Inverse folding.
């Protein structure tokens, strides 16, 4: 019989690596002067194959930034405030249009030529 591999052993126990140890290992890697890219095979370090991945990462970062901005706007409530202001402006504009169309039908407002020349009835 063969001895169980380490991957099989981890699956059997079902316990993930402790977060504190993982964070410690990452901190050690960050502070060390080890160039991790040098450890990869040369086929992975070529820039040609990474263009699609880089584009996907860039798009993902842009999406995350826009999403964060939208959440911030929502949390501040500024969207609702601006929406209410727009609704109020729209209501006033519609009232103004109704007033102008009613006045125009009554003959109180002259033609466009008369308005431009300064001669109103």
């Amino acid at each position: 019989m063969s001895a169980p591999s380490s991957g099989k052993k981890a699956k059997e126990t079902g316990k993930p690596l402790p977060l504190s140890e993982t964070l410690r290992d990452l901190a050690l890697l960050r502070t060390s002067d080890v160039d991790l890219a040098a450890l990869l095979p040369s086929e992975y370090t070529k820039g040609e194959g990474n263009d699609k991945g880089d584009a996907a990462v860039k798009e993902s970062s842009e999406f995350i930034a826009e999403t964060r901005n939208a959440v911030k706007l929502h949390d501040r409530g500024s969207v609702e405030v601006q929406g209410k202001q727009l609704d109020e402006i729209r209501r006033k504009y519609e009232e103004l249009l109704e007033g102008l169309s009613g006045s125009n039908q009554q003959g109180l407002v002259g033609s466009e030529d008369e308005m431009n020349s300064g001669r109103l009835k």
Observations:
- The first helix runs from residue 6 to 13.
